[in-house]
């Protein structure tokens, strides 16, 4: 079972399972509104999402999971590349590339951010160039200290994009040999942040052997 961090501020340490995330974060109807609530002071319940429609209100209360393994801390890091782009576009790219291959190589340079995959039926490349001339929520903005190229498993990135309805933009932070940070910033409420370790060449070579 894969665990993902719950929405919250810097001090929240709540986790729930992937099936819960899929059920709660599925795309709302056009008349629905999603509202996230902060964790209660007394676990094990976390009231996280209220989905309100014209004549119906749905509340979700998720049981928090007690993790026995040692807590893995994430140190503060100055990332070599930061990409801000529309969350719906990132979701579409991950979904489309997963029909071709199992992994995606993300390359960030001064020319833009390139998503590439290769599979048995072919290969695909999608490049998003920096564009600040459109509406803010449609912009692709790149902050670059140095070019970065990393490869990730698409099945995990597709799971992360279930949070797309919560925020119009997504932020990717990358540095060589470090986990990518995928963050959905929820205005005035907090954020959903995921970490995914890159695949290394030795792992890919072993998988092909």
Describe the structure.
The protein is globular. It has four helices and 14 strands. It folds into two domains: 3-63, no CATH class; 81-208, Proliferating Cell Nuclear Antigen, CATH 3.70.10.10. Residues 1-13, 27-33 and 204-209 have low confidence and may be disordered. Strand 8 and strand 9 (122-128) form a beta hairpin. The protein has helices at 18-25, 87-97, 154-160, 201-208, and strands at residues 3-5, 15-17, 33-36, 45-52, 57-63, 81-86, 103-109, 112-119, 122-128, 141-144, 148-153, 169-174, 180-186, 190-196. Helices cover 16% and strands 40% of the residues. It is of the alpha+beta class and 209 residues long.
CATH fold-level name of the largest domain: Proliferating Cell Nuclear Antigen
Taking the alpha carbons of the first and last residues, their distance comes to 27 Å
β-strand amount: 35-45%
Note the run of SSEs as H and E: EEHEEEEHEEEEEHEEEH
Strand arrangement, major sheet: 10-6-12-13-14
Structural class: alpha+beta
Please, how many helices?
4
Coarse morphology: globular
Count of structural domains: 2
Examine the secondary-structure arrangement and name the CATH architecture of the largest domain: Box
CATH domain class of the largest domain = Alpha Beta
What is the count of β-strands? 14
Q: Can you give the mean pLDDT?
A: 77
Low-confidence stretches: 1-13, 27-33, 204-209
Keywords, separated by commas or semicolons:
single chain; alpha+beta; Proliferating Cell Nuclear Antigen; five-stranded antiparallel beta sheet; four-stranded antiparallel beta sheet; disordered N terminus
């Amino acid at each position: 079972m894969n665990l993902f961090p719950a929405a919250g501020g810097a001090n929240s340490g709540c986790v729930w399972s992937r099936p819960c995330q899929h059920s709660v974060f599925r795309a709302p109807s056009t008349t629905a509104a999603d509202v996230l609530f902060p964790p209660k002071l007394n676990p094990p319940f976390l009231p996280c999402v209220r989905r309100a429609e014209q004549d119906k209100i749905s509340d979700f209360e998720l049981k928090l999971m007690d993790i026995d393994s040692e807590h893995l801390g994430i140190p503060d890091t100055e990332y070599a590349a930061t990409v801000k782009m529309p969350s719906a576009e990132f979701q579409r790219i991950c979904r489309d590339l997963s029909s071709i291959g199992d992994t995606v190589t993300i390359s960030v340079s001064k020319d833009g951010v390139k998503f590439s995959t290769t599979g048995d039926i072919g290969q695909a490349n999608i490049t998003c160039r920096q564009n600040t001339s459109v509406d803010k929520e449609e912009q692709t903005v790149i902050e670059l200290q140095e070019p970065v190229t990393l490869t990730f498993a698409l099945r995990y990135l597709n799971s992360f994009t279930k949070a797309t309805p919560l925020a119009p933009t997504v932020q990717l932070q990358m540095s060589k040999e470090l986990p990518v940070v995928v963050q959905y910033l929820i205005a005035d409420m907090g954020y959903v942040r995921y970490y995914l370790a890159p695949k290394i060449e030795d792992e890919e070579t072993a998988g092909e052997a």
